[in-house]
Task: structure prediction
Amino acid sequence: MESNAAPFSDTLVERLANARRVGVLTGAGVSAESGISTFRDAGGLWSKFKPGELANVEAFLNNPDLVQRWYQERRQISGAAQPNPGHYALAALEKEIPEFVLVTQNVDGLHARAGSQTIIELHGNIERNYCIDCLKSVAALDEIKEGQPAVCENCGGFVRPDVVWFGERLPATLLETAMGFATRADVFLSVGTSSVVYPAAELPLIARDYGAYVAEINREKTEIGHMLNETVLGSSGIVLPQLLEAVISLRKS
Ligand code: BV8
Ligand code: ZN
Result:
């Protein structure tokens, strides 16, 4: 199958070069090379805290200032982080494809900063906050002291990050748009995600069911890898620029 040194097949390059519609799903692995830890890798965000301890409404109501401080810390890290070559390669690939949709589970805003245009933030964005009672959006928070959670000036309700927690519905229109596009994609890439969180992890499987050529790009094979057309093993910051390069040079040849 391999006629090039690249970790991906010629088929993937040809499919992308001839594709009309390309969908991409990204996860925390795409931001790892920007210095933002993932959730489930060793030393990742969930290794210190369990998902249940922080990323759900009950945890928040029990310990609002702990959860607010956790997001403040993550906001600082992603604010200081820079998009990496993987983010930029996706923004450049979008320019090569007639219809391109980037669906991300990431809440760090790096795809937009790298220049991607058509982004669906399925799990929200930690730059935005809102009041859990009156839903009023709340600008950046000051430093949060232990036991003194940030509250809404309007009604005194606790301020929460505008992200989707476990047990919460994803924004319905975003999810429908993402799923609808996956049914029409010619090629679908699943990049840097452990594919364990639903319903986001369903997207590559929907694309496959509707006839797309589906490849995952990951440092390791994921739980859904065996159901896809191809698993490309490698770091997204290295593989994505190589893939972009291969598509552009195939088109020139
Ligand atoms: C919901 C919040 C229902 C923001 C997150 C079946 C159907 C529907 C729901 C469920 C279901 N089964 C279970 C559920 C419930 C749950 C779920 O999926 N649980 C899992 C854990 C079993 N789903 C939900 O609760 C969802 N809501 O379904 O509501 C509902 C219906 C009706 C009425 C009410 C409710 C909500 C899910 C969203 C949860 N929010 N985050 C935040 O704080 O960030 S999830 C969190 O994990 C992230 O947001 C991220 O989106 C998600 C997945 O993580 P990944 O991005 O994949 O990161 P991870 O660390 O896991 O993996 C990194 C990968 O990258 C690894 O594979 C690694 O190898 C790779 N990698 C590392 N470095 C690199 C690399 N790859 C390439 N290059 C590198 N350099
Ligand atoms: Zn309020």
Summary: The mean pLDDT is 94. The pocket of BV8 (ligand 1) is lined by residues 27-29, 32-33, 38-41, 44, 55, 105, 107, 123, 163-169, 192-194, 196-199, 218-220, 222, 235-237 (CB under 6 Å). Residues 15 and 187 are 7 Å apart (CA to CA). The two ends are 20 Å apart (CA to CA).
